Amino acid sequence: MLLIMYMLIFIMLISNIMMFLSIILSKKSFSDREKCSPFECGFDPKSSARIPFSLHFFLITVIFLIFDVEIALIFPIINLFKLTNFIIWSKISFFFILILLLGLFHEWNQNMLNWTN
Question: Which pLDDT tens digit goes with each residue over 57-73?
Answer without folding.
Answer: 777 788 888 778 888 88
